[in-house]
Amino acid sequence: MKQCLKITVFIKATDDFLQDFLRKQATNLGLEGTAQPADDRINIIACGNKDNIDLFLDALHKGTPKLKPDFIELEPFFKEKDYRGVFRIIE
User: Fold this and answer.
1) One pLDDT digit (tens) per residue for the chain, 91 residues
2) pTM to 2 decimal places
3) Are 91 and 19 in contact (CB under 8 A)?
């Protein structure tokens, strides 16, 4: 079953975290959507298989050895846009 989430991750994002961690996790799990850094958080829209969304959330909660999120907010929604099967980083 497909699921879409708006995820707000409260963390000071670096390019390494965005490109090497977020994009790789989303791509490996076959998710589509966007990630956009803003001040002290990252706004993420992720759509895909429910099990893969859960795995993505688990990876976000764990973070990386250097960066761990302070807080994560989740909001389910219905897909309004076509992300064309790609996960993009918008800077």
Assistant:
1) 789 999 999 988 777 788 888 999 999 999 999 999 988 899 999 999 999 999 999 999 998 888 889 899 999 988 777 777 788 888 8
2) 0.89
3) no
